[in-house]
Every structure is written in C-alpha cells, then in structure tokens.
Design goal:
Blueprint: H1 17-34, E1 48-53, H2 59-70, E2 74-79, H3 91-99, E3 105-110, H4 115-122, E4 126-132, H5 138-152, E5 159-163, H6 170-181, E6 185-189, E7 205-207, H7 210-216, E8 219-222, H8 238-245, H9 249-253, E9 260-262, H10 275-278, H11 285-304
Parallel strand pairs: 1-2, 1-3, 3-4, 5-6, 5-8, 6-7, 8-9
The structure holds phosphoric acid mono(formamide)ester.
Phosphoric acid mono(formamide)ester (CP) binds near residues 57, 131, 137 and 140.
Length: about 300
C-alpha cells in the first residue's frame, strides 16, 4: 500500500495501522533527506499550502513551515491575532477567502475541538489538523510514536504512561489512539481532577501514584499543566502538583530501570519536570522536535498524493 486511506489528517482516530506505518516509513525516508547537505526535494513544487494558526504555537508552526519548505511547496502564513478574524469574520469566510487564492492544502490550529473536521466538510482542500482545542493533535502523536519506534525498534508491547493534565490534552488523546493501534500498552497518571471521567472506555487504566506509574513504564510522556484551559481550580497549587506529580532527577534515578522521558513542549521547567531531567540522557525531547519535521513532510507528501 502506498496511499493513505484518508483524504485529510483530522485525527489519529481516523487512521488505521497501515496508514501509521506508511507515514513512519515515509518519514524515515525524509529524515535521511533532511540530514543530507542538500535538504530540499521538489516533491510539492506545484502545491500551495496555507498555515492557519488561530491559537499560539512555536514547535508545530515552525515545524510545518520547515517541512513545507523542504518539500518545495509555496506557502502562505496566517495568524488570527493580526487578521480580520478580530473584526468578526467567520472561519468559513476566512478560509474561503484564502482558498480563492488557489490553495491546495490547509494546516490549521484552532482552539475549538472539531474545527478541522468542520473545515473538511466545507472547503475543497486537504486539511491537516495542527491541534483542535483539547481534542486531537495528530502530527504530535505521530512524531511521538516515531520517536519511540526509533528508540526501541518497535511499539508493540511497549509500556507508555502519560502523566499530568490529561483532561485538557489533545496530545494525550492522539497518543492513546496511536499507541493502542500500534500495540503499545498505555496508562495515565495524575490527580483524578485532571483525568477525564470516562478514560476507562478507551481501555486506559489510571494510576494515581507517580512512582508506581514510572516503575511500570518504559516511556513517560510528561504533560504541561494547561492553566489557560482551566476555568476552575483543579488542584490546590502548582507547588503541591509539582511535589506529587513533578519528575525530578532523584525520583528518576531511584526507579527500577532506565526509562525514556518525553514531553511535547512547551515545558514548564520545575513544574511537571525539572531541568536536569529534561536535559538528561534519558530525555528524547529534542529528538521529538527533530522528528516532527520528517513526520510533517511525510503527512503533507502523502496527502498531496490524494489531490485529484
Ligand atoms: N507540541 C506543540 O504543539 O507545541 P506548540 O504549541 O509550541 O506548537
């Protein structure tokens, strides 16, 4: 199989195992390309991509932009804070105006869950979800899975614990879908106020004690506390959260085995993870960022192959 089963990348939920394997295989190829002296290929020379960011981003925005440039696509960038959205223009009107400039693909980050799906139903372009509210962040899960695969050679049977603010995390949901599709075992850890009530319906067990969770896993994905998405206080203080669920070097070194540390970023150093853990040999946080470019090149290249 050399084609994705989907026309858009809206979420990991819509991909099958073969799609994920194809994206990993293609990303492997592009990782070789971006490590050559000439890092550019002409694959998307005839394609125009609009990057629409209605919410802040550092890694995802830069990574998509670099991936598009490495593939020789033409790109236009849009950020809502400096656009006519602030004058009341709707999402559909904004996007249709951009599409009338003959855009083939749209990469969109939006604060509302389902925004990418909504767009895919209303506009004639391939849509890539770059994060929709607390729903999904598919390219983050793909780069995370690819980074684990690179480290261990296989995802099947790997124990992965996702720690922290699972309730507000699109990274957590996308990773749960992806890791389970690829045969990994996934558990979550955090205070119950930060864990979705119905998480067990996804086949995910909750561990409330951090040391127990870390001793079970091969890989720990540490999540940022998303204070900007919390309308009410869900824990007494960041200091207390950090004492119970923060990972420091002393705890890391006291575990039964050497686990791998991941974080999607941005990191709140000293809250969910200390600097010496984030920068330790067990951390693959910067590998995740590097792999993000190859994964996004793969996704864009494969979706472009579905343009009529
Ligand atoms: N991981 C991630 O989505 O980071 P940004 O919000 O900086 O894009």
């Amino acid at each position: 199989m050399s084609k994705l089963s989907v026309n858009h990348l809206l979420g990991i939920k819509y991909l099958n195992k073969q799609d994920i394997e194809l994206i990993f295989e293609t990303a492997n190829h592009f990782k070789n390309v971006i490590n050559r002296p000439i890092k550019k290929v002409p694959s998307l020379r005839d394609i125009t991509i609009a990057n629409l960011f209605f919410e802040n981003s550092t890694r995802t925005k830069l990574s998509f932009e670099l991936a598009e440039k490495r593939l020789s696509a033409d790109i236009i960038n849009f950020s809502s804070s400096s656009s006519s959205v602030t004058k009341g223009e709707t999402l559909i009107d904004t996007v249709n105006n951009i599409l009338s400039m003959k855009v083939d693909m749209v990469v969109m980050r939006h604060p509302n869950p389902g925004a990418a799906y909504f767009l895919s139903q209303h506009v004639n372009a391939k849509i890539v979800n770059a994060g929709d509210g607390a729903h999904e962040h598919p390219t983050q899960a793909l780069l995370d899975g690819f980074s684990i695969l690179e480290k261990y050679g296989d995802l099947k049977g790997r124990n992965v614990v996702i720690v922290g603010d699972v309730l507000h995390s699109r990274v957590a949901l996308s990773n749960i879908f992806l890791l389970q599709k690829m045969g990994a075992n996934v558990k979550v850890c955090g205070p119950l106020t930060l864990i979705p009530k119905h998480i067990s319906s996804l086949g995910v067990e909750v561990i409330t004690d951090l040391r127990t969770a870390l001793n079970w896993c091969d890989v720990a994905m540490m999540l940022r506390i998303q204070l900007e998405r919390q309308d009410i206080k869900l824990f007494p203080s960041l200091r207390e959260y950090s004492m119970l669920y923060g990972l420091d070097k002393q705890l890391l070194d006291s575990l039964k085995k050497k686990i791998t540390i991941m974080h999607p970023g941005p990191i709140n150093r000293g809250v969910e993870i200390t600097s010496d853990v984030a920068d330790s040999k067990q951390s693959i946080i910067l590998n995740q960022v590097e792999n993000g470019v190859a994964i996004r090149m793969a996704v864009l290249y494969l979706l472009a192959g579905r343009i009529d």
